[in-house]
Specification:
Layout (H helix, E strand, L loop, with lengths): L19 E6 L2 E6 L9 E5 L3 H8 L6 E3 L2 H7 L3 H10 L5 E4 L5 H15 L3 E6 L2 H12 L4 E6 L2 H9 L4 E4 L1 H6 L4 H14 L5 E4 L5 H9 L4 E4 L1 H6 L4 H14 L2
Parallel strand pairs: 3-4, 3-10, 4-5, 5-6, 6-7, 7-8, 8-9, 9-10
Antiparallel strand pairs: 1-2
The protein binds SN-glycerol-3-phosphate.
The site of SN-glycerol-3-phosphate has 11 residues, from helix 7.
């Protein structure tokens, strides 16, 4: 029971067992997140290039990165560089920016340009092709994060990890669209990466529903990148809504 007299300011309070510092100022509670020291935990990224969608959701403190691709940028109807700049300004720590080119030298050149603009916030997204893998090897050797995209097989996952990729993005929804099993691929890659102690992280992409998020994590994905609609559904359950309705009703007698 809260015995704080109404209207009286609450004292500043630091909960040593919480990952957050709670600064109580009267009834307005400011929460300052401390750096997350747990590195090997599942993470959610948001898969969108709509800046307002990102802005609305980053305030939850539950989103560790943003992934974009040329199709998402096109859907936004905006210039890519304006989109990246606006996402950067939101304080996002990890932003996947895709570069498009045929040769590894073009990919590296474009990647360096991105890196010069966004530094460590940028993760360079490269296609999982021979040229992409070559570019990945070069960029990771000089300490630039790379997300290898359009991964559809275990052999591709192996090549990406040998090239030092930070992330690989298996597209699970697109596999299902083509009568393949996207989640099985996550499981298979997860097993190999764990047995070989591979540091490359599995970033499940093309995720279209909350059940796939849960399964992807169960099968060893490190990160799921999800569209805003799926993010919004993560906290919802029909029984929660029904229970809440009943509690509200009963609270009013
Ligand atoms: O992150 C990749 C994602 O944007 C692709 O999703 O639904 O177009 O297959 P989708």
């Amino acid at each position: 029971m809260d015995s704080t007299p109404q209207g009286e300011s609450l004292p500043t309070h630091v909960d040593k067992h919480s990952p957050y510092t709670y600064l109580d100022k009267g009834f307005e509670i400011l929460i300052t997140p401390t750096p997350n020291t747990q590195t090997n935990v599942m993470k959610l990224f948001l898969d969108t290039a709509i800046v307002s969608d990102i802005e609305e959701r980053v305030s939850t403190g539950l989103i560790d990165g943003i992934t974009t691709n040329p199709t998402l940028i096109r859907k936004s109807g905006r210039d890519p560089w304006n989109v990246y700049r606006d996402i950067f300004k939101l304080g996002v720590k990890d932003l996947s920016i895709e570069v498009v080119g045929e040769s590894s030298s073009t990919l590296v050149k474009l990647a360096m340009n991105v890196y010069e603009n966004y530094g460590n916030v940028a993760t360079i997204k490269l296609p999982c092709t021979t040229e992409g893998v070559k570019a990945c090897k070069y960029l990771t050797n000089i300490g630039i994060r790379v997300n290898m995209t359009l991964v559809f097989s275990v052999s591709q996952a192996i090549m990406c990890s040998l090239a030092g990729a930070t992330y690989i993005s298996p597209f699970i929804g697109r596999m299902d669209d083509n009568s393949l099993n996207g989640l099985d691929l996550i499981k298979h890659i997860g097993t190999i990466y764990r047995s070989q102690q591979i540091k490359t992280q599995v970033l499940a992409a093309s995720v279209r529903d909350v059940q796939s998020v849960a399964k992807a994590f169960e099968y060893g994905a490190d990160i799921c990148t999800i569209p805003p609609k799926v993010f919004d559904s993560m906290c919802s359950h029909v029984l929660t809504d029904a229970g809440l309705e009943k509690f509200k009703e009963d609270a009013n007698f």
